[in-house]
User: What shape does this take?
Amino acid sequence: MAETENNETEETPTEAEAPAEEAAPEAPAAPRGAPAEVLAPKERRRRARAAKAARTKARKPLSAEERHAERVGERQRKAKARRVERTRSREKARAARAGGETQTTPPREHGPGRQKTRQGVVVSDKADKTITVKIDIVRRHRRYEKIVRTSSTLHAHDESNDAHIGDTVIVRESRPMSRLKRWRLIEVVERAE
Assistant: This one.
């Protein structure tokens, strides 16, 4: 027995009702001017299952070799589609690289003897001669090309306690000054109101 949404049990359909249910998926589509029949999701799934069962009943049973050949054919079809998609994405990447080569590439930010520089907003200045800076990172995902926003916090040395909460500052990489401090304040770009 099957259960309905109201936890009431309903009896299995009788032989007289069964052909009507199988015929339901095969019903002709409504004319263009008439509104389409609105079905509940459960009813839609039930009709889809009934239609699939009717299709499988119409097929003759396959032997093990035939099933295997069918699976192999399906795998080959999917592999071909994957190859086409990968080739298309490679061509797209090549075109993007070719278009990008005409532009001058900026010098590398970090190298031997060259410290990293970051700009961020001060989120805490409670500690003496130390500020906590939030760095917002916005980048495009390599494969899906969606804009991904992340942030990280770092501790920077502020010798004169110049920066305060909300200030936009530039910090530069430096020698380790404490367990967490690896950066130092370079300048305050914009003061908070």
